[in-house]
Task: inverse folding
């Protein structure tokens, strides 16, 4: 069975975790800071703050910005639930932006349309999602957000290793040249894994310090006080990432160049293998500025024209040993958000959802697995 995604854990990863288990600190120790430094250096960020998962990273970002009830955050509807939920955790409203139906990404046009629904509300943050690993048009999105007095917070759990070229400059997702912060996830199906885990990068030392305080109950230790003394100016959360998992993260991060090269090679193979199935099957569009390390290999399939339901295709592929997934059900459709905001007409998100199917993509795939997936898809679709 080929799952749609899978971690790659090797003997040196296991050895790194075993060494951490034998060390003095299982949590809040030196391996946390080592992982943060290495990650910041890898993506070119001034600061990196590790936390318990990608959802915690988003929540911390909202708290660090002091987003308040009555304020507003814009997020794309094609994303995981956490992108929108992080705003609700701090009492803010969410306006859902539509997406490009071919790439699934928020665009300047869809952001501008969402901003047109703000009314008198204050916009505090815009959360573009680097869906699949492809980068959004950050300079244009940042310009629009800035004109509205808001900042970008990049939701980048799919995009570890992705680079971008805006003009003559190569940038990395996470360097936060255009944003206040970027958030990452190290869930097992992501590019590097810590089991569960997250990271927030920023160029702002004050934001970094606030993130560190908020991830550990909001506690501070004022200088000059007794060694046991601590104070809590405001409540935070226990969002710490233990040394054990950071040891795995450090080991995985060292493999990022190899993982990235493998994912890029598999993506090229998919483009070649699926080309004969066009126009019924096409891979998600890649923006010209994006050089992604893809987390997801999303095929856009015209199920209606083919006379097949997505469920039929999913089950047919599973019967042939091919696992798939759908990324994502539009968040504005969720009962909670429908109850809050009523129905929305977001045609790009609906068109994306109607056609998307994520195919297997992970470094451990064999060279001939891509051909096997393409042949199974051709067979199931009757092409």
Result:
């Amino acid at each position: 069975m080929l799952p749609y995604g899978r971690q790659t854990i090797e003997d040196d990863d296991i050895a790194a975790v075993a060494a951490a288990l034998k060390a003095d600190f299982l949590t809040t120790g030196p391996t946390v800071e080592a992982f943060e430094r290495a990650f910041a250096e890898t993506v070119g960020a001034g600061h990196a703050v590790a936390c318990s998962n990608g959802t915690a990273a988003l929540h911390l970002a909202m708290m660090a910005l002091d987003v308040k009830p009555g304020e507003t955050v814009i997020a794309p509807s094609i994303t995981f639930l956490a992108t929108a939920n992080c705003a609700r955790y701090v009492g803010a409203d969410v306006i859902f932006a539509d997406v490009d139906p071919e790439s699934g990404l928020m665009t300047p046009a869809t952001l501008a349309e969402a901003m047109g629904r703000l009314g008198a509300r204050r916009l505090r943050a815009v959360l573009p999602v680097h869906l699949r690993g492809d980068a959004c048009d950050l300079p244009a999105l940042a310009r629009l957000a800035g004109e509205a007095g808001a900042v970008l917070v990049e939701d980048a759990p799919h995009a570890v290793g992705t680079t971008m070229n805006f003009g003559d400059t190569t940038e990395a997702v996470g360097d936060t040249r255009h944003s206040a912060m970027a958030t990452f996830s190290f869930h097992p199906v992501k590019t590097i894994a810590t089991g569960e885990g997250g990271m927030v990068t920023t160029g702002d030392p004050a934001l970094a310090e606030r993130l560190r305080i908020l991830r550990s109950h909001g506690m501070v230790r004022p200088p000059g006080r007794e060694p046991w003394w601590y104070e809590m100016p405001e409540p935070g959360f226990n969002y710490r990432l233990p040394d054990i998992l950071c040891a795995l993260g450090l080991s995985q991060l060292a493999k990022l160049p190899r993982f990235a090269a493998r994912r890029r090679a598999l993506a090229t193979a998919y483009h070649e293998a699926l080309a004969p199935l066009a126009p019924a099957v096409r891979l998600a569009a890649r923006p010209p500025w994006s050089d992604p390390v893809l987390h997801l290999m999303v095929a856009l399939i015209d199920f209606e024209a083919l006379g097949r339901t997505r469920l039929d295709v999913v089950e047919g592929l599973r019967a042939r040993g091919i696992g798939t997934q759908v990324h994502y059900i539009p968040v504005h459709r969720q009962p909670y958000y429908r109850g809050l905001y009523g129905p929305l007409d977001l045609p790009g998100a609906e068109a994306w959802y109607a056609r998307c199917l994520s195919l297997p993509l992970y470094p451990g795939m064999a060279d001939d697995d891509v051909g096997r997936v393409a042949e199974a898809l051709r067979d199931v679709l009757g092409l």
